[in-house]
Design a protein that fits this description.
This protein is mainly alpha-helical and 78 residues long. The protein has helices at 9-23, 35-42, 46-58, and strands at 62-65, 69-72. The longest helix has 15 residues, at 9-23. The chain is globular, with a radius of gyration of 12 Å.
Length: 78
């Protein structure tokens, strides 16, 4: 990924994950990749990957099920 220097990396990965949800790569009910998978795929730290998942939950796009994972709850609003 070509990183935008003026935008925090977590925001860039969040936007990419949000796009994947909108495109149906991760449909509602689908389990999202975990922290380690996100960190490895995007070349970011685990703290940054946790922030991405936290922000997806805060935006209402995902919900955590403790001990199971984080799942897509809805599509992004256009």
């Amino acid at each position: 990924m070509d990183w935008e220097p003026d935008i925090p990396r977590w925001r860039q990965v969040y936007a990419a994950m949000e796009q994947r949800i909108a495109e149906g790569v991760y449909p509602p009910g689908e389990r999202l990749p975990g922290v380690l998978q996100i960190a490895a795929e995007w070349g970011i730290g685990e703290v940054t990957a946790r922030r991405v998942l936290k922000e997806l939950r805060a935006s209402g796009l995902a919900q955590m099920q403790p001990g199971i994972g984080t799942f897509v709850t809805q599509l992004p609003k256009p």
